[in-house]
Write a structure and sequence with these properties.
The protein is built from six helices and five strands; from the N terminus they run E-H-E-H-H-E-H-E-H-E-H. It is an alpha/beta fold. The protein has a five-stranded parallel sheet, with helices on both faces. Helix 1 (21-37) crosses helix 3 (62-84) and helix 4 (102-109) packs parallel to helix 5 (129-137).
Length: 170
């Protein structure tokens, strides 16, 4: 089987990773699907220079761009550590730090019709810019995975917490 723009071989499971709880849930679900289907897992983190592409192009600095790309790669590694304690067993994994906005970056990577694109979804935040873009432009099926809910009252307690609440007590 071959995709329109992809090479021969089965589709991949492509997952968008940002480090959020929703993206960690999506990463776990994508790894499970890749293991179940025997497909490769491609984890994608999108990044841009913090000042934006337009300002960066006015004063390009390759060392600055390399710094932010390395930062994105470290965040991707941290997401795997948070989700699995390393790489998930039994799955072929490819990690990619793609320069660009999340929606276009994900659609660029998941361009085969037999790919599966997996995204995390915060409760009540379905219509984010990246999701809207992916819904309009993805050429493959899309799976959204909800973020785990915080225990009742936990958010309120965390908002009230002070630095002393987290201090080590000896």
């Amino acid at each position: 089987m071959s995709g329109r723009r992809g090479g021969p071989g089965p589709g991949r499971v492509v997952v968008g990773v940002s480090g959020s709880l929703g993206s960690l849930a999506a990463l776990r679900a994508a790894a499970q699907e890749a293991r179940r289907s025997g497909r490769r897992l491609v984890a994608v983190i999108a990044w841009e220079p913090p000042e934006g592409e337009y300002l960066y192009l006015r004063h390009p600095d390759p060392a600055w761009a390399a710094h932010w790309e390395q930062d994105a790669r470290q965040r991707l590694d941290a997401a795997f550590a948070d989700a699995f304690g390393g790489l998930p067993p039994g799955v072929e994994v490819r990690r990619a730090a793609v320069r660009g906005r999340p929606g276009p970056a994900l659609c660029t990577v998941a361009h085969r019709p037999d790919d599966l694109l997996v995204l995390g979804a915060r409760t009540g935040a379905w219509r984010t810019r990246a999701r809207r873009y992916v819904l309009r432009h993805a050429e493959c099926p899309l799976l959204t995975v909800p973020a785990p809910r915080a225990p009742r009252g936990a958010a309120r307690e965390l908002r009230r917490a002070t630095a002393q609440d987290f201090a080590l007590r000896v």
